[in-house]
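Most newcomers find our protein records easier to grasp once they have seen one. A learned vocabulary of local backbone shapes supplies the integers on the structure line. An example says more than a description, so a record of this kind follows:
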Amino acid sequence: MLRWLALATLILLADQFCKVLVVGYYNLGDSTVVTSFFNLVRVHNSGAAFSFLAGASGWQRWFFTAVGLVAAGVIIWMLRAHASQKLFSFALAGILGGAVGNVIDRILYGYVVDFLDFHWSWLSPVFTGGHFPAFNIADAAITVGACGLILDEIRRVRRSR
């Protein structure tokens, strides 16, 4: 179990380190063009994924903090029980590191700091200016972890046939 907690900790540290740099060097709304399809930005998200509930009156900060803490507890319990299942535990470690990273933001700032802005013209019909919603390392780790859980389940089902 310790290697999975170490992976989650590495994800958490990388996420928080980058966020400290962004908060230290960028004002809200600042942007730096890196490539033709990628910018570094500073965006605040007081909601969840895709700014879900961002316009709420403030209760969502503590709601999403509580959800993240409960999820972290459940994941740690699951890691204890399934530490030998590599893909499953890898996926859980990614989700754990990301969830705790975003919980820290909500506690410290009242919002999550996002800074990765990818944009392609073919996304224009779905996203304004073709800009996918800005995200951070924690969000990426959660997404990779969720994909890992799906892949692990597909593999489990196929093995049982």
